[in-house]
Amino acid sequence: MQEKGSISIHTENIFPVIKKFLYSDNEIFLRELVSNAVDASQKIKRLSSLGQFNGEVGELVVDVKFDEAAKTITISDNGIGMTAEEIKKYINQIAFSGATEFMEKFKEANDANEIIGRFGLGFYSAFMVADRVEIDSLSYQDGAEPAHWTCDGSTSYEISEGTRTTRGTDVILHVNADSEEFLNKFKLQQILDKYAKFLPVPIRFGTKTTSEPDGEDEEGKPKYKSIEVDNFINNTNPAWTKSPSELTDEDYLAFYRELYPQSMDEPLFWIHLNVDYPFNLTGILYFPKIKNELEIQRNKIKLYSRQVFITDEVKDIVPEFLMLLHGVIDSPDIPLNVSRSFLQADGNVKKINNYITKKVADKLQEIFKSDRKGFEEKWKDIGLFIKYGMLSDEKFAEKANEFCLLENTNKESYTLKEYYEKVKDIQVDKDGNIVYLYSSDVAQQDGFITTAIAKGYDVLVLDGPLDTHITSYLEQKGGEKIQLKRVDSDVIDKLIQKDEKIELILTEEESKKATDLFQKAINRTDMNVQIEALKADELPVSVTLDEFMRRMKDMAKTGGGMGFYGNIPDNYKVSVNGNHPLVKRMLESGEEEGQKLAKQAFDLALLSRGLLTGADLTSFVKRSVEMI
């Protein structure tokens, strides 16, 4: 038998397209060919179970070998095999997939969807690294003759009688000069570890050296000897393919360590995904310790299709905020283009996205309700993730409102609803606004916090990287007429203004004189002096930054689309308590002594905010010593 012909294609010059554009990463040739071999192996097993093949299935194994001298890579299987006619049909007619006919023939089988042929364009990825490819195959069919196919990367092929004597297929790649990096054991092992780690049929790549017990030495200590054993790449039955009832906590943790052998931390908890309608999806998602590092955590979810690794770029499958999770998603219903490397727009993708979001929200709510104390203890590790989700996904936010926690300076935790109830009758201003006071730096803002607590108010701690945005979220979604004000953004009586009227004891002339005194003492254009009518026991001077302006500038720093505000210089308000005895004393002192006292009070206010540094701090210390 000898035949020559042309490959049936519907696009001219398809091989240059395959080599340069179709596959963005040429190492995936091995993924395609190995997964083809796995499919062929699964097909023979399926045919046997359906009574369509009565022979001995035997031990199904896919072998990957290379010969550096001959410059070849060979992928062998003992699966279904192909006749010469099938090779012409499935290999030569690129636009036709072998799966179509196979599925039609066995569509009565309940799980026929599990069998998908990968012949066609996937096979032609071989030409990214090879200038000639051979197929040697023997079909499972009774009386079948071995067939040999060869192609040099043009549209011409040749079929002749093959040499294979047992059922299955060998694909031999004659590696081109530009791809000789693949004729390397370490390189091939690395690619197989990446793409074939969880394939459902054993993948063997040569042998490896290991040790086994070899009796005892003269001191009775165990001895070991080195032996060569088959080097199997994969775990054919990973945790996500099993039922949750089959797995213990240790099984889930062991699988996490298998996925991330370099990780030093164990996950906090996990979700086992398993749905078969209206799409098929399995997987396990782990909640890691986020540690306030949004970027470092990304791209840790691996996408598989029938246990074949596809990508860890899952942003189209998984909502943006869920990319902080780790784990595996496996779905045959995720549409991929012919290179299997990029997702196509499809309704299933949106459904899967929504399903995963709902499952994650349900799991968090379940943990919160069943073990609130444990949930609160984990909040520092998962709070950033939950807040990110609330800011970026409205459906997640609807559920998260029930388990998102707010913590105050006493380390007490409240849900959004609980906190609203806690402060709504106390921290209400004269206009009926409910004011949430918060601190972004408890140590630096301690003076302001102490003043607020002395008035019976509560202060939240919002010091995370997303908390500038969360303040706006709480104002919009937290409840009616809520305002958030940082505890150091003004004097406390201005932050929560009541109906009570405090009269200023200074005359208009004294107020002007005090303003001039402070302006001359401070001598800074970024400090705006205002005389305030406050209680006599409040601080004499406070330095604050307007809440709105400060929030806009903070958002600009965290990429919140407020870049304009980031370029505006800081402008502070210097609140002088006109009813404080110190102010009267300044006015009654001489010009020089008055300015000295004013400067000292101002520097104390700066010091309490951590704004007094360098030469100004040195001068303050020297002046303080002189005044003692």
TrEMBL record:
Keywords: ATP-binding, Chaperone, Nucleotide-binding. The keyword ATP-binding applies. InterPro entries: HATPase_C_sf, HATPase_dom, HSP90_C, Hsp90_fam, Hsp90_N, Ribosomal_Su5_D2-typ_SF. It comes from the Bacteria. It holds the Pfam family HSP90. Residues 25-179 form the Histidine kinase/HSP90-like ATPase domain. Belongs to the heat shock protein 90 family. This is Molecular chaperone HtpG. It comes from Sphingobacterium tabacisoli. The gene is htpG.
